[in-house]
Each structure stands twice: as C-alpha cells, then as structure tokens.
TrEMBL record:
It comes from Streptomyces silvisoli. Belongs to the SHMT family. Residues 29-403 form the Serine hydroxymethyltransferase-like domain. (6S)-5,6,7,8-tetrahydrofolate binds at residues 141, 145-147, 265. The gene is glyA. It is found in: Cytoplasm. It comes from the Bacteria. Homodimer. This is Serine hydroxymethyltransferase. It is an enzyme of class 2 (transferase). It catalyses: (6R)-5,10-methylene-5,6,7,8-tetrahydrofolate + glycine + H2O = (6S)-5,6,7,8-tetrahydrofolate + L-serine. Its cofactor is pyridoxal 5'-phosphate. The modification N6-(pyridoxal phosphate)lysine is found at residue 250. Catalyzes the reversible interconversion of serine and glycine with tetrahydrofolate (THF) serving as the one-carbon carrier. This reaction serves as the major source of one-carbon groups required for the biosynthesis of purines, thymidylate, methionine, and other important biomolecules. Also exhibits THF-independent aldolase activity toward beta-hydroxyamino acids, producing glycine and aldehydes, via a retro-aldol mechanism. Its EC number is 2.1.2.1.
Length: 431
C-alpha cells in the first residue's frame, strides 16, 4: 500500500501498517471478545433492520478506514502551521485538504473542520459572535428547533436570552411574518435559521432580509441539510448567512463531527472560538475522515445520491399518507419526514417502541400541536439518507410505508419482512 506523494520504495515501510489494519478485528476479538461481541451485535442491528433515523447514515468504507487509522494517535492543538505539539506536518496536510475541499464544495471563504460535533460548532458560532445575555431568535423546540436553539437544559438557554419563533398552525410552515415582528420587537444580536425536524426548505433570503432590518447576525444551523446542499438537492445558505454550522454525518455521510463555514472577515473569530475557547486538540482521524467525505461529496455520484434521498423521502411521505399517517406540512422537500401518530391512538414514544420491535429504527419528536410544557409527544421523525445509501429507491419506499403502517398497528410478522428487505441492500459487503 503506497502513500500518496511517496515513491514505490516506501511500500516496505507501509506494508506492516496495511497488514496490521487488515487484522485489527481479529486482534480485538482475541484481546477483548466481550467488546468485539458488542461491535458485531451493533453491526447486525444496523444491517438486519431499516435505519430511518433522520440524523444517521452509513459512512463509506474509506471514511471508516481513516477513523481507525494511526491519525487517532496524534495530538495537534492549534491550526495547520501553528501547532502546540511537534510532529504535525502530516496531519497539517490532512486538515488543509479538509478545509480546501469544504471551501470549494460550498463556495465559502473559510471553513473550520475541528468541532467535535454539531453542537460544538453551534457553541463556537455563538462564542464568536455573542456575549452572554445577548438576545437571540431561533425556532422553538416544539416547532422543530434543536437543544442548542435555546433549551434551558442546554448552554444556549442558560447563557443567552432566546425567543422562539414557530410555524403557522394551518400550514406547518415557518411564519415569516411572526419572525419579522419578533425581530423588530426583540432587536436580537443574532437570528438562527435551521431546525432538527422541519421538513421544508428554508427561505434564507427572507431570513437575511429580516436580520439586516434589525442589525442581527444570521447563523444557519444546516446540520440536517448540508449534504443535500453539497449534492445540489437543497438551496445553499452560504450566500446569505454570516456563519453556517453543520454536522459532517447525517446527509453529508462523513464521520461524526462538526464544521463551520464563514466569510474571511469572521475567520479569525470563528477559529479562536473553536480553539482555544471551546475545545482543545482536534481529533485528527475525524478531521481527515471529513476530508474523505468532502471529496466523496464533490463527485457526480454523490449528487445523484442526494437527489435520490429527496425523491425517496417524497415517495415515502406520500405512501405514508395512504397508511393514514399524514406527514406534517403535507410532505417534504428534504430527507426528513414528521408524522402525527395520535390518530392511531399512539404517542411518539409508543410508536417508536412498536417500530423498534419490528426492526425499524426511527425517532419520536414533538409537534407544534403538542401541549406546552411538552409531556407525551405525538410525532415521529424519519429520514431516507441511510436507506438511500444502501441503494433503496422509490419502490422500496412504498414497501417501507406499508411496513411502518403495519408496525404501528401492532401487526405481527413485520420484523421478519423488514430484516429481509434490509438484507437485500447491505451497506457493507463485509465487516
């Protein structure tokens, strides 16, 4: 196995790593059979059922290879060319690749690829632009917002003065008139656009206009949709936002981590907010795996994938309606669907449990119609990113909708059929 940029003579030096990497699991099985059993059981769970959790996906074998590489050994506090520790010349190359690929893919001037998660990326964005006590507008949690959008259980709700905007009760779509009125009344330092369970495209131009009217920063949390943006299947927030935060998994199909995109005028503030303000040394194996995922996302094959994700979601949403499971907003523009299960006499928690018993993994979620303070939520949230990675298309979505309907009604035999469908589309041909 030759390393890029080296001569064939270096093969003698890299061969031991190649051999060791191939034998890694056998070593684990001998040394720690109990943990190896957990790994195998999780592999079986992922591949013997339908993975419809909207925030999950199957990273490619190339991404997984980097995550399990010696890059995990390297401490690299700082940024390329400016590290606290020595020996960072090669990991500098990996991080620069990730940064350059992100900037090229999303058309931004600067990218920070070090955040440990999407929440870490949002924290850094707030740290770069705000001070504790500043007023912020974000989508309220029952209407689709995230914990980092002002939950009192989260740093965001404890450190900043959040006001939630929401959706029109008739359409389920963002109420931009309410947003504008709140912005003029509250005069926030920042407005956050983005959600964790809103299935429609966001009008970033409208958000930008409202933010400009009140002199606010516009922060976009594109954790769920950045992969669709990369594939040209969703509008890009980059031309409108001051800062874009996202995860590198979900629809981007990379490692579990975060990313921040911004213009050159905010680059230094964002970088300082990530390190040293909110976190220490980056996880270089994750940074390098992000570079791999960004390289994959720049290909025509990924663009086809992203469009298929959306096509699958739209077919699935329509087919769920035929099962008396009416999608919120009447459908979806993205990979994500939310459904009210109360018509079946279920709560979201009970619905999730019935689906889990049928080998269908999805999430419960709050809906705008749920009473406040939230008790038992009445919604479920599902997505098509993972099953599309497996190669499923529209006909499989029709079948999944029927399986979901049967599972939620408590019918027997669904687990076997779900496992059979999943087995026909293995995400990995071998462990």
């Amino acid at each position: 196995m030759a390393v890029a940029g080296t001569s064939p003579e270096t093969d003698a030096h890299t061969a031991p790593y190649a051999a060791a990497h191939a034998a890694d699991f056998d070593v684990l099985r001998r040394q720690d059979p109990e943990l190896a059993g957990v790994l195998l059981a999780e592999y079986e769970r992922q591949t013997a059922g339908l993975q419809l959790i909207a925030a999950e996906n199957f990273a490619s074998p190339a991404v997984l290879a980097v995550l399990g590489s010696p890059l995990a050994n390297k401490y690299a506090e700082g940024y390329p060319g400016h590290r606290h520790h020595g020996g960072c010349e090669l990991v500098d190359l990996a991080e620069r690749m990730a940064i350059e690929r992100a900037c090229a893919l999303f058309g931004c001037a600067h990218a920070n690829v070090q955040p440990y998660s999407g929440s870490s990326a949002v924290l850094a964005a707030y740290a770069a632009l705000l001070v504790p006590g500043d007023a912020v507008l974000a989508m309220s949690l029952p209407h689709g917002g995230h914990l980092t959008h002002g939950s009192p259980a989260n740093f965001s709700g404890r450190w900043f003065d959040f006001t939630g905007y929401g959706v029109d009760p008739g359409t389920g779509l963002i109420d931009y008139r309410q947003l504008r009125d709140l912005a003029h009344a509250r005069r926030p330092k920042a407005i956050v656009a983005g959600s964790t369970s809103y299935p429609r495209h966001i009008d970033y131009a409208a958000f930008r206009e409202i933010a400009d009217e009140v002199g606010a920063y516009l922060i976009v949390d594109a954790a769920h949709t950045l992969g669709l943006v990369a594939g040209g299947a969703a509008p890009s927030p980059v031309p409108y936002a001051d800062v874009v935060c996202a995860t590198t998994h979900k629809t981007l199909r990379g490692p579990r981590g975060g990313i921040i995109l911004c213009g050159s005028e905010l680059a230094d503030r964002v970088d300082r907010a990530v390190f040293p303000f909110t976190q220490g040394g980056p996880q270089m194996h994750t940074v390098a795996a992000t570079a791999v995922a960004l390289g994959e996302a720049a290909t025509p094959a990924f663009a086809g994938y992203a469009h298929q994700v959306v096509a699958n979601a739209q077919v699935l949403a329509a087919a769920l309606g035929a099962q008396e499971l009416i999608p919120q907003t009447g459908g979806t523009d993205t990979h994500l669907i939310t459904v009210d299960v109360s018509a079946l006499g279920l709560t979201g928690l009970v619905a999730r449990g019935r689906c889990a018993a049928a080998r269908i993994s999805l999430d419960k979620c709050a809906l705008p119609s749920d009473p406040a303070p939230a008790g038992s939520v009445s919604g479920i949230r599902l997505g098509t990113a993972a099953v599309t990675t497996q190669g499923m298309r529209e006909s499989e979505m029709e079948r999944i909708a029927k399986l979901l309907g049967r599972a939620l009604r408590g019918e027997e035999g669904v687990a076997g059929e779900a496992a059979e469908l999943a087995a026909a589309f293995p995400p990995y041909t071998r462990l």
